[in-house]
Amino acid sequence: MTLLTGAQIFVESLYKEGVEIIFGYPGGKVIPIYDVLYDSKFKHIMPHHEQGGIHAADGYARSTGKVGVCLTTSGPGATNLVTGLATAYMDSVPIVAFTGQVPRAMLGTDAFQEADITGITTPITKHNYLVQDVKDLSRIIKEAFHIAKTGRPGPVLIDIPKDVLQEEAEFVYPNKINLPGYKPNYEGHELQIKEAAKAINESKNPVIYSGGGVIISEASDELRELAKKANIPVTTTLTGLGAFNERDELSLGMLGMHGTTEANLAISNADLLIAIGSRFDDRVTGKLDTFAKDAKIIHIDIDPAEVGKRKLVDIPIVGDVKRILTILNKVVEEKDRSEWLALIDNWRKLDEVSQVRKDKKKLSPKEIIEAIDELTQGEALITTEVGQHQMWAAQFYKYTKPRSFMTSGGLGTMGYGFPAAVGVQVGNKDSVVFALAGDGSFQMNVQELATVAKNKLPLNIVIFNNGYLGMVRQWQEMFYDRRYSSVCLKMQESCPPGCSSPGDHCPVTTPDFVKLAEAYGIKAKRITKAEEIRPALEEAINSPHPYLLDFIIEEEENVFPMVPPGGSLDNMVLKEEA
Amino acid sequence: MKHTVSVLVANEAGVLARIASLFSRRGFNIESLSVGKTDNDEISRITLVVEGSDRVLEQLTKQLNKLIVVHKISDLTKESVVSRGLALIKVKATATTRSEIMQIVDIFRGKIVDVASDSIMVEITGNEDKITAIEELLRPFGIKELVRTGKIAMARGKK
């Protein structure tokens, strides 16, 4: 009988799970693992902050559909995962995070670099483990991967004390999983599916409201079939973008707070809402009482806890979206809905009016994103941070395929997109990857420029530079009487108090992103004129190296349409007040 | 409305913390909770009493079900059940009041489990009402200390 150390069992177990890439940051308690990794076949990507590592694992998982793996040391290494775990938990991303822990004998003594990471992460992981015995390690790893990727996916954390990594045991990788408390339901109830088909066949003005669950379940083809067969328009949530080709005439784009006019008005006037793999988030529904107020609601979701959580549902179907849609598509009837679609077309025109801007001198974000869209034909993989640029990226890029838009939808994590793009590029070597960021959020994980440079990742980093935390500024403009409290990134002590008139006279206190990129050996360019947009983007896309583009955009550009917080979807602010 | 919920969970370290933290972060208030092993060493039973509408209870049940350590949940509220709590009450007693206290305990089928020169400790089991009733009767004598367990419950018959 050959005995392996815990660290060796860790590596062998990951081989068994088919893991290829680990996003990890070394530290004292995980040296035994790093010692084994030294001779292993894994590609190891070292971020420059553990938060960057877990977001990279998240981007890798979202873009490839595989489980993202990250590894950190105990204490601060582990606690630096918290934001990344919460981000992945909210958007149902499969991640297995390994953390080192102090030796068992020192547990609970406030030892050096000790943190109760299982206690800390219980509310933001699907499940977590503290390994108390090396004999349990392989079983726990097997269970963790199973839990992370099945049912409604989510992050799982495994905390391993250092002495468990050094102890020896026989390596046996279990064939079977024994988790009596974990039985995800994949099969939708047949009668309910029939009931849903009947409702769809009888409806005149149905709308499909499709969420991230459609992408997770790999059900884009089935979704398209349903929409096409029954002529039903499709709106998607932020995390659902790409599940339905936005170049299709049935696409309504995104719905919700910054959704399209046609999507929000279609929801408000629908007689049937078919919610698929979506969870009625408050940024989607606006005022709950008036959301789809005249519609019968069908809700298909794998997580029973999401059904009826925020909105009562007429026809709930719990199970895997792909399987349910496959059955549903067989019983749904073809139907002409040209009247309803014509009505929607009229609403579409309202949208176009709201997006025309002519009075501004600096670059418009819409122009930039539309140029990226044209140059990449909706084929690029795009990540964003959180804020205005995120909404512009959602509105103006026309996503054509699933797993092409990686963004923190549920938690709204600034600092997510850039490190996530590292994972996306690592997992999709030949794809064109764009990391879109605001000048505020880019600085949240700016250290990952080093990771990009070191690994020669041909990322296209695009900064929408307006000198502001733009989305908060927009809210302050609209709802707080332009009192720009702490949102100006250029603000200095010498500035007049209560300034709300930014401009070229302002001091420069945000970093010069071009010089910053160059300091890491990354090519970069600042773009200030409209005619420079396309050539700069083309150069970046065609370059085999990482490229940072710093676009100086209108300081006070807003995101429209907008449903004011707590408002009804049919009551949008379409454009700037004159 | 008050609900009595019985939850079978894995008998592992940290399970109670998972359940309790789920309650706090979802804003559900636990009125009483008792926990102990079942006849199976690997499974513990938690009996919870929570206040809330049927909708609140439905959400709570679904959220509890999502925890990997939870095996089974039953809502006993509308079932025919036997439910019990236990209280230990230390009440002031003098030579003159002692017999009166003993009479009350007797009526409630409680037990005297300790006698000291100036106090008596009473053990009482029963449903909530019964325990509250004896508590009220003993209060005039002066209650020095009181401890009550959470409620435990089990459905009658085959279930």
Structure report:
In chain A, the strands form four sheets. Chain A has a six-stranded parallel β-sheet with strand order 3-2-4-5-7-6, with helices on both faces. Chain A is globular. In chain A, 36% of the residues lie in helices and 16% in strands. In chain A, α11 packs parallel to α14 (321-331) and α16 (365-376) packs across α17. Chain A is an alpha/beta fold and 578 residues long. Chain A folds into three domains: 3-170, Rossmann fold (3-Layer(aba) Sandwich), CATH 3.40.50.970; 190-348, TPP-binding domain (Rossmann fold, 3-Layer(aba) Sandwich), CATH 3.40.50; 360-467 and 509-552, Rossmann fold (3-Layer(aba) Sandwich), CATH 3.40.50.970. Chain B is of the alpha+beta class and 159 residues long. Chain B has four helices and nine strands. Chain B starts with a strand and ends with a strand. In chain B, the strands form two sheets. In chain B, strands 5, 6, 7, 8 and 9 form a five-stranded antiparallel β-sheet that branches. Chain B folds into two domains: 2-78, ACT domain (Alpha-Beta Plaits, 2-Layer Sandwich), CATH 3.30.70.260; 82-155, Alpha-Beta Plaits (2-Layer Sandwich).
Topology diagram in text:
The complex is a heterodimer of chains A (578) and B (159).
Chain A: E1 3-5, H1 6-16, E2 21-24, H2 31-37, E3 43-45, H3 50-64, E4 68-72, H4 76-79, H5 82-90, E5 95-101, H6 117-121, E6 127-130, H7 137-149, E7 155-161, H8 162-166, E8 168-170, H9 190-202, E9 206-210, H10 212-216, H11 220-230, E10 234-236, E11 251-254, H12 261-269, E12 272-276, H13 282-285, E13 296-301, E14 315-318, H14 321-331, H15 338-354, H16 365-376, E15 381-384, H17 388-396, E16 405-406, H18 417-427, E17 433-438, H19 439-442, H20 449-454, E18 460-465, H21 470-479, H22 513-519, E19 523-527, H23 533-542, E20 547-552
Parallel strand pairs in A: 2-3, 2-4, 4-5, 5-7, 6-7, 9-10, 9-12, 10-11, 12-13, 13-14, 15-16, 15-17, 17-18, 18-20, 19-20
Antiparallel strand pairs in A: 1-8
Chain B: E1 2-10, H1 15-25, E2 30-37, E3 43-51, H2 54-66, E4 70-75, E5 81-92, H3 98-107, E6 111-115, E7 119-126, H4 128-138, E8 143-148, E9 152-155
Antiparallel strand pairs in B: 1-3, 1-4, 2-3, 5-7, 5-8, 5-9, 6-7
